[in-house]
């Protein structure tokens, strides 16, 4: 059973922004009995990882947190959430899973097909879960800095692989179907990992199944504009995605009728 611990990460000297504090308040409102564990500069001494240390030196805190979130969930068990995740109801019904995660609300092109990645803004697992270990092992002995040539752009000088992509690759190894149309509950490798539809943790709109919503405030982005500008752009994107998703669902229905 997944323990009632919520892990979150906040690195650096800046205080938690108001919008993120409101997210944390929602965690406490719906899950008052859960322990909240903050991993910050004062607790990073527990970790010893080259990838994480190099990311910290470059002030790429989001990539450092990719390692930290996996480490703490593997070692202690519990639930990890980004600080910009708003909670709408208790996670108690999810705790019987060995591990859980949801699908993102965005699509990615792979070759000639479209697929959906896993939403790493919110996931949970029992201590020692094998899927979490598989993801964590990716960072073992791996360097974040891939070139010492500072004239190169960051994307060529650093390993900036999205953790949502890594989770998806390793989940596909144990049976995850990443197709846009496979938006249903998936039990992978004897329930080692349960994958929920997009509406559970990264919904474009609230439903009775929705546990969380990722606000995607993106404080880690360099040169980021004010939050309200990003949020307005985000709302427009959600409406476009909703239309595309509706068309894809209709296409699936038509194909089933033809069969």
Automatic annotation (TrEMBL):
Give GO BP annotations, semicolon-separated: mannosyl-inositol phosphorylceramide biosynthetic process
Q: Which Gene3D superfamilies match?
A: 3.90.550.20
In which domain of life is the source organism classified? Bacteria
For this record, an example GO cellular component is: membrane
Q: Name one Pfam family in it.
A: Gly_transf_sug
Swiss-Prot/TrEMBL keywords:
Transferase
Any GO molecular function: mannosyltransferase activity
Name of the protein in question = Glycosyl transferase
